[in-house]
Amino acid sequence: MSEQQPTSARLVDRRPTISGPELVATLVPPPQFVHASFESYRPDDAYPSQAEARDALQAFTAPPAPVGRGGFFGFGRKKSADAGPQAPVKPGIYLDGGFGVGKTHLLAATWHATTGRKYFGTFIEYTALVGALGYAGAVKVLTGARLICIDEFELDDPGDTMLMTRLIGELTSSGTRIVATSNTPPNALGEGRFAAADFLREIQAMSDRFTTIRIDGTDYRQRDITGDAVALSDDAYRFALADVNASGERMSDDSFGDLIEHLATVHPSSYSGLLGGVQCIGLRDVYELTDQSAALRFVAFIDRVYDAQIPIRATGVSLTSIFGGGMIDGGYRKKYQRCMSRLNALSSSEIA
To answer: A GO CC term (predicted)?
Structure first.
């Protein structure tokens, strides 16, 4: 009897769900950043803003200096007339910069350097938490945390704008500090997607909670990668599938169209549940996407694939060419560009 090889997984057969308590338990940095630190961050000397951002975050995580007092029982020291009024320290830092400049690394380093109760998640995970627990339930869970890290901060609709404004306001008012990353400065969130002017007050109120730090630089994921994501021939794909399974690991095997349809039936907060036990993702017959809702769901899925560092093997159109119909030039262009960068890296990476 021949030894049985592992069978391929079909992602479309999986229907993961995640509860509120399970979501809370996942609010930690992804595996690739489990050891991220300020010391392991390597700023590009050509872009001084990277080192400046690291230093600012290190200072942000440092415990507050004790207040000096003079005279008996701390009384009697007069405030210096030359000191002038001190600018209020804002409770949050907002890292604004292009994709691939190390923002998530710095966010995770901030999380690791902070003691006490703390949470780390993507914007979509926090909105999913509110959906699972209700607004009051989410506030109850998060209140009292010393630090909340929000990665990939994006406002795709007015409802999210008002929700996150309210949530951030309540948490910072109770003493929680917040660090967020985004490809868009806070006063431009929602630009080109909805009538942002109608929500200017909410956007400005949220922006006022943050000190914005701009990080410049080039996409580190592309420094050693040129061209588009690799598209395999049908024969090369079948060989990759057999090779992975023969190695004792598991490669998924789905048609691109089937996966796109399936993602519409799974809440984005549960996309990570599609990936359990899979060491490589296989996609057949990739084609250009022209439906924006489907494209954004695929972006959210790839974010979770990238967090898990699972390589991708695909046939059909190159994965870096799938955003069609003018989407790459629209209001979500930065999301698509970040996704293309990640798809190129995942398609070029070796199988773990």
So the answer is: cytoplasm
